[in-house]
Every structure is written in structure tokens, then in C-alpha cells.
Amino acid sequence: MPDHVEYVIDTHRLSKNFNGVQALKDLDLRVPKNSIFGFLGPNGAGKTTTIKLLLGLISPNSGSGSVFGMDIIKDSVEIRSRVGYLPQEPRFYDHLTARQTLRFAAGFFFKGPEDAIERRVQEMLELVELEKKADRPIKGFSGGELQRLGIAQAQVNYPDLLILDEPAASLDPMGRHDILNLMERLRKYTTIFYSTHILDDVQKVSDTVAILNRGELDGAR
């Protein structure tokens, strides 16, 4: 990468162990701004551990990392205010509708006029193509629809970085196709960092790919 590239994520020898077991070892990772960055590796490789470190949900044993140039330990609260996050297994109140779910999430970020919040909710519903099901209880949604709703919820605060943990792993081919298309549409709004164990997915949408295996970086391209 050229020296002038701005990096949203930058880690140096970031390491984490749990009860003596090395989950992540000496991770050097740089994610360019306005890119789709694929974090590829098998289950148990350390991908979710990395994400939790970046978000300040756990602390490293050694090494350092920054997001938006801010320290992942000291500035974790400010970092999270600018990040949208979709966990590997998102949970929802299934008696709520998609619109109610997004309205509830938006309320944590926006304190302005109610009609402005409603416009943002509608914008998200249209972006993830759920506007026709917006007012149905989400307990009847398919796995792909739930993932798209989760991405809308993560994107509702206009994040500068969108982190998706295995967003398409549990979906059928059509659901995976929809999620990848949605990621392509989102790239004009934010930097996307997503983990996956599906090689075909990273080949379709990623600008850069880092490969993690047994807690160590195998390579990047």
C-alpha cells in the first residue's frame, strides 16, 4: 500500500491468551479507509477475538492497536460511538417489527425531532430491502432477512466503520448473495471490516484479504 493511505484499523503485535491458551499472536493488521476488508480464517482461528479487542470488549495481553487513530484500550468508548457492529449471532426481540427494532436502536444515537429519526429508519429499511416487511413481527423473518435487519441496525448511526462478524456464515446461497450485494451498496458510506470462513465470499467483494490461522496471520493480499 502507498504511504499516503489512511488506515482505519492499525494493530502492532496484538496478542491475547485465555488461561494460557494463545488465541491471537502478534497480529499486525492495517485496514484502509473506504475499503471492504475480508478477515478470512476457519472457525476458532481468532477472528472474533480480534474483533472484541478492536472494540475494547476484552483487553490484549500484549501489543497495541488503534481505530481511527485512537487507542483501543484508552479510547474504547469513543471508538464504539463511531462503529457499527453485527455479532456472529445477533439477537432480537421477535415480537417487535423491523421498524420498531430500528427505531429502538436509533433512539440511542439520535435525540432530534421524531420525524428525522423516522426518516433514518425508513432509509435503512429501504437500503436492506425490508420496507415491504417493515411492520411485520420479525419472529417470522428468514435467516437472511434477520441478517439484513442486523446490518441495518449496525448502520443506523452512520458509522465510520462497520464490523461484521461472519455475516453470511449460516445462510443459504441466496441469503449469502443478498448479504454480499448489501455490503457492496454500503461501501460508499463506510469502511467495512468483516470476518468469514468462506473463501468464495472474500473473492467476490473484498478489496483486501487477511488470512488468520490458529491465531496467527498467514498473509494478506
Describe it.
The chain is globular. Helix 3 packs across helix 4 (114-127) and helix 5 runs parallel beside helix 6. Strand 9 and strand 10 (216-220) form a beta hairpin. The chain is built from seven helices and ten strands. The longest helix has 14 residues, at 114-127. The model has no long low-confidence stretch (mean pLDDT 91). With 221 residues, it is of the alpha/beta class. The strands form two sheets. The chain has a six-stranded mixed beta sheet with strand order 6-7-8-3-9-10, with helices on both faces.
Question: Strand arrangement, largest sheet?
Answer: 6-7-8-3-9-10
Q: Any idea what the radius of gyration is?
A: 17 Å
Strand content: 25-35%
Q: What is the count of β-strands?
A: 10
What would you call the structural class? alpha/beta
SSE order? EEEHEEHEHHHEHEHEE
**Helical content class:** 25-40%
Number of helical segments? 7
Based on the structure, what is the oligomeric state of the protein chains? single chain
Q: How can the largest sheet be summarized?
A: 6 strands, mixed
